[in-house]
Description:
Layout: E1 2-6, E2 27-28, E3 31-32, H1 33-44, E4 48-53, H2 57-66, E5 73-78, H3 84-91, H4 93-96, E6 107-111, E7 114-116, H5 120-129, E8 134-139, E9 147-149, E10 155-158, E11 165-166, E12 172-173, E13 176-186, H6 202-211, E14 216-220, E15 226-228, H7 232-244
Parallel strand pairs: 1-4, 1-6, 4-5, 8-14
Antiparallel strand pairs: 2-3, 6-13, 7-15, 8-13, 9-10, 9-13, 11-12
Helix pairs in contact: 3-6
Amino acid sequence: MKAMVFAAGLGTRLRPLTEDRPKALVTLGGHTLLEIALIRLKAFGVDEAIVNAHHFADQIVSFLAANRNFGMRIEVSREETLLDTGGGLKNAAWFFLEPGVDADEPFLVHNVDVLSSIDLARMVAFHRNQDALATLAVQSRATSRPLLFDAEGRLVQRAIAAKSAAAPDGSAQSHEPLAFSGIHIISPRIFAKLDEEGAFSIVEAYLRLANQGERILGFRADGAYWRDLGRLEHLRDAERDLASGRYPEG
């Protein structure tokens, strides 16, 4: 299975740690965030991955070479200018559309600054069984950027009110606000539908596609451990989780 690790961000919320290195090479428990993400993906069954890079990109290339790509095939997608998540994914489309690759075989996308125990096998099985275009790991937890899902688990829109919002057709319908966890399963056929150019958010593209009737689904992962590692205080919290055994794979 193939995967992409989003690692091109500037890591401004992790300064001063990112003043001389990319966010992907910040360490947690003695291991870089990139290593943690790649080893988790490899344990799941990913054997080919692409990592996008911008800030101190050469350091990422050197790190992967020094570790022999952790026994995987790993490509680096360099971004001369930041392309955001959607643009970064589209820029790496060639990797998922290579000759001989099954066009129906989904791939996994994982933020480098996410630590989780979300069941990737169940998530992929769910994606396949539901014939989704994209499946987002979501949880019922506090977030500043909730997404709304209907009773069938389909993405509707960004949350406006805390508990409900109107459906796209204007009818009154209750939807559930959920937090996206930075882990997605995507079908390669999405690339033919990404009309956006340059830098753009993949979530905004998901919202557009959902409103056009595409199956963009939420996979409930409420019971799983999850932590954002994009801030210094969150990194310290994760260190405590590792030390205490709260993170089940730490």
